[in-house]
Design goal:
The chain is about 0% helix and about 55% strand. It is mainly beta. It is elongated, with a radius of gyration of 17 Å. The model has no long low-confidence stretch (mean pLDDT about 80).
């Protein structure tokens, strides 16, 4: 976690991802930044659809598609207000 506001720290993540119930180990970079009182975490993971039993997308309006994609994530963490 960044120690000062506006400072970005780079780290990594790893874990199991299972969009179609076939879990696979995945890893990717994460960036963490403190913005005001919110911790913002962003990252992305390259995914090969066949690894999860997902067929290559088909479209009649697009000349070609690929059998892989990028999953992007953005998480916001805030301190819970006490009641």
């Amino acid at each position: 976690m960044p120690s000062r506001r506006g400072t970005t720290r780079r780290g990594g993540t790893f874990g199991k991802q299972s969009p179609q119930a076939d879990p696979n180990d995945e890893s990717g970079p994460l960036d963490t930044k403190l913005v005001k009182n919110v911790i913002v975490v962003t990252g992305q993971i390259d995914i090969t659809f066949a690894d999860y039993g997902i067929e290559k997308p088909v479209s009649v309006r697009v000349l070609s598609t690929e059998d892989r994609g990028v999953m992007e994530l953005q998480l916001f963490f805030t301190k819970q207000e006490s009641s």
